[in-house]
Design goal:
The chain is α+β, with helices and mostly antiparallel strands. It is about 25% helix and about 15% strand. It is built from five helices and four strands. A two-stranded antiparallel sheet has the order 1-2. About 0% of the residues are buried.
Amino acid sequence: MRIEEWFNLIFVNLDGEAPPLRDSLGELPAQAEKFDFSSMKFSERRTYEMNCNWKTYIDNYLEGYHVPSVHPSLNREINYSAYTVEPHSNYVRQWTPIRGAQSGDAAPRRYQHPEPT
């Protein structure tokens, strides 16, 4: 077995001869450096029993087309027009900026996004 730690996460590979984890992460470490993982704390665990084909479920997760209609409260918080899906060889990165308060908003936003660099 190969066991490695990255950003306080433990990864286990049953193939002890596998390349190091870092080799398979591609650009992910550079993309994740801006997040302070060491200060994150466990909040809660939720378990859902899904009676579906796991591949279909994951495919749904890897697209954002359904966000405006299925997740309207999330859609109000993000800049959906900037929603981006970046497929990489061993992972998929999805991201979008959190939008700031808009005129006509009833309540202030809880989240603020950093200014672009």
